[in-house]
Amino acid sequence: MKPNNxxxxxxxxxxxxxxxxxxxxxxxxxxxxxxxxxxxxxQPVLKGAVITDKDIQTVEVGGYNLPQNIARNPEDVVGKYAxxxxxxxxxxxxxxxxxxxxxxxxxxxxxxxxKVAISxxxxxxxxxxxxxxxxxxxxxxxxxxxxxxDIPELQFVKVLSVTDSKGINVDNGKELTAxxxxxQSATITVLASPEQARLITGLENxxxxxxxxxxxxxxxxxxxxxxxxxxxxxxxxxxxLLESEDEPSADDTMPDATSEHDAETTSDEGAEN
Length: 273
Description:
The chain is α+β, with helices and mostly antiparallel strands. 33% of the residues lie in helices and 20% in strands. 16% of the residues are buried.
């Protein structure tokens, strides 16, 4: 290497070292050692619970590499609802809190107009399909008192959820680990019309209801079955709606002027002949 090149290389090395020492290192140190206040959980808060000032505290931590959506003021958290279980020591993120109450059962947040959600008790293991029902299943509900009875209004009913005796949702489709105990189904919540709901209420107090699985995992078939059930309900409780649909419209009942004219012309021609 020539002397001039060595000199230039040496100067560049000194400048680079100075830039690292006086610019880069202080910037990194400032980011690493800089302090900021955040909100932290001091006791467990379960999903759906309202967060109170006793559940959180404000602490000072290093500001380096913190999430952008971390809560920094208690006012941003207190009075809101936890959308996930928060454990002691957790930082509160905006994605884990909500201004509005949430339901642990999402299906109950979107019940169609004219329908209701209603539960029926699983009185025996067999009557509840041996703890094998899952949300979205289409079932048929039978009534047994003195003898088994098929109920036209309850031929095709959609399951919204299955719960245990504590009201906790049961996931019958989940594979259990060695240390997990299977939950026992206690109730089945279904989507029903008001007429179906009245029948189900009667079944709760008169005899025993049994359910049979009709369809699972076939969305198109499920929709067809539910539409067929709605038709049966209309035929039983609101036949006038079907009659009004079958009545001919005004256009159908009005005589066709052109046809009448053609008929008269044909009649006149026949008379002349």
